[in-house]
Amino acid sequence: MRISAKGRYGLAAMIELTWLSANGKLIPVATLSDHLGISKIYLEQIFSLLKRGKLVTSVKGAQGGYRLARDASEISVYDILSALEQTLFEPTESSVEEKAPIIENILNANVYRVLDDSVKATLSKIKLSHLIEEYVAQKNKGNYMFYI
């Protein structure tokens, strides 16, 4: 499975957005661009798709920006990738249906659908809230307080 740059950057941006907007404040794309080292123009394209997918909301203007449309525990990696990756979750095209329909049916039932269902089920279980918990844990790793 190959996730495009748009999908990878979108996942990273959603984690950073979740982290930065923890108190509900709006986060400008420029801030995310600076934090992640991703082109502002490219992030605007990504957030346009995330907004269309109803994963983020936005407010225009000087004090505007983005925030999650719903709680991070309600957004899965599948939700994010399906909003960003137009072809990643398309059904497998038929290959030998015309000359060998029985083989095509066997492949669909035992390989392609099984694989599609497994990928969807796995990615649906991974919630943005879990990713942000991992992010916080990694960020805090090694931040020890010493008292003398």
Mind explaining what this structure looks like?
- GO terms for molecular function: DNA binding; DNA-binding transcription factor activity.
- It comes from Pseudoramibacter porci.
- InterPro entries: Tscrpt_reg_Rrf2 (IPR000944), WH-like_DNA-bd_sf (IPR036388), WH_DNA-bd_sf (IPR036390).
- This is Rrf2 family transcriptional regulator.
- This protein is mainly α and 148 residues long.
- It has one domain: Arc Repressor Mutant, subunit A (Orthogonal Bundle).
- The chain is built from six helices and two strands, in the order H-H-H-E-E-H-H-H.
- A hairpin with a 5-residue loop joins strand 1 and strand 2.
- Helix 1 packs across helix 4, helix 1 crosses helix 6 and helix 2 crosses helix 3.
- The longest helix has 25 residues.
- The N and C termini lie far apart (52 Å).
- The model has no long low-confidence stretch (mean pLDDT 91).
Task: Furnish the topology, listing elements before pairings.
Layout: H1 5-20, H2 29-36, H3 40-52, E1 56-59, E2 65-68, H4 77-84, H5 101-125, H6 128-140
Antiparallel strand pairs: 1-2
Helix pairs in contact: 1-3, 1-4, 1-6, 2-3
